[in-house]
Amino acid sequence: MDTDTNTDSLKNSSQAKYKLAKKYFDECRLKESLELAIKAASAGNVKAMTLAGKMYQVGVPGYIDYSKTIEYFTNAAKQGDSEAQTFRYLLCKRRRCNSRFWESKILA
What domain range includes position 85? Predict the structure, then answer.
């Protein structure tokens, strides 16, 4: 019984962090949003994974990090998030998947 309670509170916690991250994102408080999205994603929140991927893609931490972008989109896509699947596809298309590196990272 206690294990179920702990799991539920962790899930609610990651959901609360994601919602706050999304609110901060909408308010252009991007660094705060990224920090919360990463925490929620680490706890398994799929929507937070997609949000973190988007922010790394556009350079929220001060630089664009395609490795992190792909990592977050891939993890969310593998869990069935259609938005992450679409972003993975578009990223591959934009980068034209000319190299085996990008093919293996994006299409894995």
Answer: 2-106
